[in-house]
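Hi! If you just cloned this repository, the fastest way to understand the data is to look at a raw example. We've pasted two of them here, unedited. The first protein comes first, obviously.
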Amino acid sequence: MSGLTVERVREAFAALASGDRRTMLKYWDEDVTFEIPGNHAHAGRHEGLDSFLGFLKTVGELSGGTYTAENVTIMVNAEDGYSVDVNTNRALRAGAPQDSTSPYDLLDVTALHFLRWRDGRIVEGRGVILGDGCSTSALWWSPLNPDGSRRGV
């Protein structure tokens, strides 16, 4: 795919963060599929941009807006239409003490996105969590109250 660059990948994620659907559609196909790793209620295949945006909205709500993805590196295979970006993802569960280090409250994982591009837009994405991040992620998605009971997800 000509035109696929590291900068275009950055722009695609900035478009998501903008909240402007018209801007998003310059980079993300309306029928994009995105696979979220893990074994929690929101893991699995999200079909269509609205489903993927719904997942991102849930992350924002559950983290009280603290979710961040700090980019480590981006690799591009423009000829075949693929990109991989590696990120450090962090979030503090909404309502958790600011200094909490509990894995039920604090998400801190290294992850990557494996993206397939066609005609300048992302048509398929797969998230991957590195190391023991799947366990950490599962705990964050399944928070406990101080008495051991589960909080709502």
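Ok, and the second one:
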Amino acid sequence: MLYYALVFLVVALIAGVLGFGGIAGASASIAQVLFFIFLVLFVVSIVMRLMRRV
């Protein structure tokens, strides 16, 4: 999932450089959402792993 967030970030950067504001904004929003989903799943995974050890 982090891979897809980075892909959308790169697409947003390229679209922004080329002047496609709408596509850049949409891609940046998608990248941000995917990053936060990845972050939440990562934290849940760490917590579950710590709970399993106890």
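That's it. A detail worth noticing about the second one: The mean pLDDT is 91.
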